[in-house]
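Model: Ready when you are.
Researcher: Fold this.
Model:
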Amino acid sequence: MPPNLTGYYRFVSQENMDNYLRALDINVVLRKLVCLLKPDKEIIHTGDHMVIRTITSLRDYVMDFDLGVQFEEDLGPVDGRKCQTTVSWDGDQLVCEQLGEKRNRGWRHWLEGDQLHLRMTAEDEVCIQVFQKVK
């Protein structure tokens, strides 16, 4: 049975964010700004429904979805694109596939103890973020 990811998580670290954003064609000024942000995550996981809020001082981003059901995701706040997105479980990892203009776009969330890990991919770039559960 997959884990319940419900909780509030504070940013701990990230690797390779600039190259990941470059793969999404984000301009240099916005890349530098995003690399300075320390986002928090709030996840509400109820059965097959999830809400994932990424919270920053600049802007929040909310994903509200049903597991295994494809939906159109408006990534305007991120890079101005729309994707056909499906989120499902692969063992204990929550996996998101974002089909659109960019190849190999998506992410994975998983828990290691009380830390939430996020692996984001776009083209050939991978960015890893780690968050600490606080409640």
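Researcher: Now this one.
Model:
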Amino acid sequence: EPVPADEDEDDEDKEGDEGDLAGRFLRLEQEQDAELRALPPFGAPVTHVYRPLQYAWRPHRRFVRRYLRTPKRVLFLGMNPGPFGMAQTGVPFGEVWHVREWLRVTGAVTKPPGEHPKRPVLGLSCRRAEVS
């Protein structure tokens, strides 16, 4: 059963108390993201690298704040490996339709720098489905 969208979406955008569970998790993610960005760039044959925690931070943050409210016994970390999952939504393992319609996550997604012309980021308006 999906959790209904909060009536005031702007409340989810506020960072809130960094001492709360979601705030601590988001801060750890930002620290890890900074460490990854500090690594040397990929060489050939890699030509494009998408970093959804940068360009899809708003829906990602809303997802974390909505669904990480209490401690969990298991934590899954990862990114849906296809171009129509987290690369579009910022939500780990997040196929676009399910993120938008079932989880009711919203938020603007900007274009990543160096976007591949055959893998455009359309955010939550993307109509393609992730098959992986």
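Researcher: Key takeaway?
Model: The CA atoms of residues 37 and 51 lie 9 Å apart.
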